[in-house]
């Protein structure tokens, strides 16, 4: 199946690990803080939906998502290395820079 998304991923059993970069806040109208979210998803649309669901579940009131892309291999530096591993295991890893 082909997708209209630029970041369509089809490499057999290996999950596509997306990184979504944006701004969030815990209070509507409050000051926005940077956030990175890493997760496994079959396509961009699913990744964005899962990201927004996870942010809402973690108590964020608003989110502006600026960029989405595929991660090409495990990052070497924390906290992204742990977040990548969590995403491989099915977690939605939220890195909030408060």
How would you characterize the overall build of this protein?
The structure is a single chain. Helix content is 23%, strand content 31%. The chain is built from 2 helices and 4 strands. It has helices spanning 44-57, 80-88; strands at 17-25, 33-40, 62-70, 93-96. The protein has a 4-stranded antiparallel β-sheet with strand order 3-1-2-4. It starts with 16 loop residues before the first strand and ends with a strand.
Order of helices and strands: EEHEHE
Number of helices: 2
Oligomer: single chain
The N- and C-terminal alpha carbons lie at a distance of 40 Å
Give the biggest beta sheet. Answer: 4 strands, antiparallel
Gyration radius, in Å? 13 Å
Please list the strands of the largest sheet in the order they lie side by side: 3-1-2-4
Q: What's the number of structural domains?
A: 1
| Uncertain regions spanning at least 5 consecutive residues | 1-5
Annotation, overall tally of beta strands = 4
User: How much helicity do the residues have?
Assistant: 10-25%
Mean pLDDT: 90
Strand content: 25-35%
- SS-based class: alpha+beta
| Global outline | globular
Indicate the topology.
Blueprint: E1 17-25, E2 33-40, H1 44-57, E3 62-70, H2 80-88, E4 93-96
Describe this protein with a few key phrases.
4-stranded antiparallel beta sheet; disordered N terminus; globular; 23% helix; 98 residues; single chain; alpha+beta
């Amino acid at each position: 199946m082909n997708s209209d998304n630029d970041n369509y991923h089809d490499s057999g059993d290996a999950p596509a690990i997306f990184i979504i970069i944006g701004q969030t806040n815990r209070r509507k109208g409050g000051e926005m803080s940077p956030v990175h979210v890493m997760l496994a998803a079959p396509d961009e649309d699913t990744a964005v939906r899962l990201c927004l669901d996870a942010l809402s579940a973690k108590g964020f009131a608003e989110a502006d998502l600026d960029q989405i892309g595929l991660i090409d291999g495990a990052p070497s530096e924390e906290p992204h290395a742990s977040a990548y591993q969590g995403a491989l295991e099915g977690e939605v890893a939220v890195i909030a820079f408060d």
